[in-house]
Amino acid sequence: MKNRPDxxxxxxxxxxxxxxxxxxxxxxxxxxxxxxxxxxxxxxxxVIGSMVAFFLWLLGVAIHFNFNHPWLLFLLPLAGLLIHxxxxxxxxxxxxxxxxIMEQIHVEGGGVPKRMAPxxxxxxxxxHLFGGSAGxxxxxxxxxxxxxxxxxxWFKLKGIxxxxxxxxGVAAGFGAVFGTPVTGAIFAMEVLTIxxxxxxxxxxxxxxxxxxxxxVAAWHVSHVHYHIALxxxxxxxxxxxxxxxxxxxxxxIISSAVFGLASFLFAGMVHEIKTICLKVFKHKWMIPxxxxxxxxxxxxxxxxxxxxxxxxxxxxxxxxxxxxxFHLAGSDTWSWLWKTIYTTLTLGTGFKGGExxxxxxxxxxxxxxxxGLLNAPVSLxxxxxxIGVFAGATNTPLACTFMGVELFGGEHVLLFxxxxxxxxxxxxxxxxxxxxxxxxxxxxxxxxxxxASLSESMKRRGYMHQKLRKYTLLFKKRNNDxxxxx
Length: 486
Hints:
Layout: E1 6-8, E2 15-17, H1 19-68, H2 76-91, H3 98-106, H4 116-129, H5 137-155, H6 159-178, H7 181-190, E3 193-194, H8 202-218, H9 246-280, H10 286-302, H11 335-348, H12 356-374, H13 378-394, H14 397-408, H15 413-426, E4 437-438, H16 454-476
Parallel strand pairs: 3-4
Antiparallel strand pairs: 1-2
Helix pairs in contact: 1-4, 1-5, 1-6, 1-8, 2-4, 2-10, 3-6, 4-5, 5-6, 6-7, 6-8, 7-8, 7-14, 9-11, 9-12, 9-13, 9-15, 10-11, 11-12, 12-13, 13-14, 13-15, 14-15
């Protein structure tokens, strides 16, 4: 039977077309699209990867210099003041950090300044040089977004192209700083909006993350490797049809709920510390000075520097770090809480860096503690906390599940998914990125139902609660004659 062209009604005359012709045109357009974005993304990712490699090297130098000169901690208030002056004089809008990049992606704009990359690099190194408790993801993401925006200006990209190029910049920065390219690509798309992923940037983001990671490796900058010990063979609880340990799954769910609550606590404390400091201190320069003094006081109170800095390398034998949390007795019972306090104080008072590596620390040490309480495998629960607290704080359960596979292997992918998705729900409608939007609420809630940002939704919820309290008090108030006012 001969192929007959189909008829398409256009309102006037039927137009004859060929399905094979349409298919060829579509695939030609796909190839053209991929070639175009490959040529756009590769040079950008090479520059971002090189910049991130330089940042990681410089950060390592600063951290080791701080280890060898612990008296630098006493200069932390002055370092905070210096960071404040840098942003007040030349930083301008760059101080909004990751939230600025996310806002520009949402509105398809290009208002990410070129100076963001060097400023955040310098201020993050200053923070770590003098002992501030911060991370490095925020710096890498801002480097990626700033460089991507700069190239977009050179290429004269606008609208959707600008949004996609900024997304690829985030993917390249994140994938390069942690050595997790698949996670970087998914994180860049998932972090923008809770409950929805726009896949139009999937391949460009993946290309950018892979090239960024390869570039860091080419500069011989290595990442820390983690290992989950082999689990003992346990007989299955119900039948051979269930190929996992039901009791272990139950322990993972309980722990993951706690991981989500820890995420909620962290995000809430960062925002509250910022709000309180703005109300208490008349002059903004006093806020980082106070933060530095508070960190010094806490360190003297505890008598050890374990919760300063990045938390990846040990300043002395026996220090609590992320790698040590993967071993029995490698963490104190309340290490996760102390790191939460240190980091929220550091970031909430104006110091720079990122939240993710401290979240890794909080999750791994909390997992270590919970493994003892639940009689569970230490290294496994440290790994689950590592990705679970991160998932809850950033609202990116899918990306964090992939991170578990990339960092720890795929053997426990089911447990990774259970941990990340459970923590995601138990963290509530909170997060470390206030510009993150809500497309699909985690549960039905009228305050979070129209794609507002997290900050807008929380303000609305606070306003409605105040209004409700006002009407409640008015309802309870009685007139002299015994009637109620409504």
